[in-house]
Amino acid sequence: MINFIQRIGKALMLPVAALPAAALLLRLGQDDLLGIPFMAAAGNAIFANLALIFAIGVAIGLSKDGNGAAALAGAIGYFVLTEGAKAIDGDIDMSILGGILSGVIAGLLYNRFYDIKLPEWLGFFGGRRFVPIVTGAVMVALAGIFGFVWPPIQEGINSLGEWIIDAGALGVGVYGFLNRILIPVGLHHVINALIWFVFGEYEGATGEIGRFFAGDPTAGFFMAGFFPIMMFGLPAAAFAMIAAAKKGRKKAIAGGMIGIALTSFLTGITEPLEFSFMFLSPLLYVVHALLTGLSMMVSFWLDIRHGFGFSAGALDYLLNFGIAEKPLLLLVQGLVFGAIYFFIFYFLIVKLNLKTPGREDVDTMVEESPRGNGDQYQQMATHFIKDLGGKENIRSMDYCATRLRLQMEDMEKVDEEALKSHGAKGVFKTSQKNLQVIVGTHVEFVADAMREHNE
User: Fold this and answer.
1) Residue 196 lies in a domain
2) In CA terms, which of 38, 156, 282, 394 is 20 to 30 Å from 114?
3) What residues sit in the active site (predicted)?
4) pTM, entire model
């Protein structure tokens, strides 16, 4: 079940990747920036059709080969499900959840029927052409069911969303803690989807992100507290680990750590940095999760609202500065949390002799990410395949924003230390057969190079 939920979480990343472009267009088109109405309308169109985009994106993400037939099935499934259910009860609004559900079913049906063989007189409709047909048929049946069972579900979801939003500092604090603590198993995408895209409604927009960009004066509290952590806290933790590294290894560690700290500051992509200490010192990671929850609560107490289209990095901070509330105070909070992170991390690392990067007994190191040279990706792929026990030991491979997701034949053949020495930021075994290798934002290019080697 956890592996299945992780697959859904990974699939959610494809439609989420469209949000930065939508937020950029929407903000740049506003009167306080470039004042170009058609640009703002273009960005708003993406937010207005997020449910359909999720249906298409999740179907592609779950399909075994990312074929367009899965995307078409997801779109057809979404229209059949939502419009069919509305015909029974006009008050039904399945929103983003309807899109996600349609994408999940379409992706699963694609994997089951993409190579189906039909009788010769129906041969034209066989294979991938059959997938949108069977998806439509399944969704007709589900529309009939959901037309009666969805209203109480919808009411329950709305009540849960209202409770979390109305819970004040406790609500944002618990969410901030869960958002970080669930990252190791990849389940944070699921809770993010509910907070960012489902809970709350304002002038037709749903979810924290949609409502924030629609001008909801109550939106932004579930995002503001991340900026101090991603822009200041985690980079400060990286510098604490550099300062605490063994004397002869500071320079070697600094190169990699500064690179991933800068990634966190600019873009809000934190996994490469978090995985650099997550398994070496779980205590530090729990402290990090608690501090994230605290930052969310402090932002709420200070009545700070801010938002992002992708993540809480400097780029989103500057882009949405004009529609935020008390954004300068958020910088002050960030500086304070940066100091807190540095001193707590440095104290715990030195006092407890924690084996963070640069302090391990085994001679491993965090290497700098490839700078876009295709040969470097090929070299990393070659090393990774060898470190994973050879291509015959890799049953299947996929990737999400920063990590490779692999199914292995024999986990005993995986050399974790070699993977780290060749550029992996972390290695996580989710089961006896499932493995995640944290690579960084260039994971797609490494995965493509590995596939070329496996062909």
Assistant:
1) no
2) 394
3) 400
4) 0.76
Tell me, yes or no, whether 136 lies in a domain: yes
**Residue-wise pLDDT tens digits, 217-238:** 999 999 999 999 999 999 999 9
Are 408 and 273 within one domain? Answer: no
- Is the confidence at residue 455, as pLDDT, over 70? no
Residue 270 and residue 396 share a domain? no
Residue-number span of the structural domain to which 439 is assigned: 374-454
Distance between CA 422 and CA 383 in Å, rounded? 7
150, 24: one domain: yes
Of 352, 385, 415, which marks where a domain is finished? 352
Number of H helices, E strands in the chain: 21, 6
Same domain, 345 and 386: no
Cα distance between residue 271 and residue 425, in whole Å? 9
The DSSP line for 148-170 is: HHHHHHHHHHHHHHHHHHHTTHH
Q: Where are the alpha helices (DSSP H) in 268-303?
A: 271-274, 282-301
Decide which of 317, 352, 387 is a domain's last residue.
352
User: How far is 288 from 344, CA to CA, in rounded Å?
Assistant: 10
Long-range contacts of 418-424 (CB under 8 A, 24+ apart): 418/383, 418/386, 418/387, 419/384, 419/387, 419/388, 420/364, 420/365, 420/366, 421/364, 421/365, 421/367, 422/367, 422/380, 422/383, 422/384, 422/387, 423/367, 423/369, 423/370, 423/380, 423/383, 424/384
Q: Which helix (H) or strand (E) holds 442?
A: none
Tell me the C-alpha distance between 142 and 82, whole Å.
10
Total count of domains within the chain: 3
Residues 303 and 390 in one domain: no
Instruction: List pLDDT tens digits, range 124-174.
Output: 888 899 999 999 999 999 999 999 999 999 898 888 888 888 899 999 999
Query: Does residue 9 share a domain with residue 145?
Result: yes
Annotated catalytic residues are 400
Q: Which CATH number do you get for residue 392?
A: 3.30.1360.60
User: SS3 breakdown of the chain: % helix, strand, coil, rounded to 5?
Assistant: 70, 5, 25
Q: Please spell the DSSP secondary structure of 310-366, one letter per residue.
A: S-SSHHHHHHTGGGSBSHHHHHHHHHHHHHHHHHHHHHHHHHHT---TT--SS---P
Contact 15, 50 (CB under 8 A): yes
Tens digit of pLDDT for each residue in 298-320?
A: 999 999 999 998 889 999 999 99
Contacts 24+ apart (CB under 8 A), 323-330: 323/27, 323/30, 323/32, 323/212, 323/213, 323/215, 324/220, 324/224, 325/220, 326/302, 329/302, 329/304, 330/224, 330/227, 330/228, 330/299, 330/304, 330/306
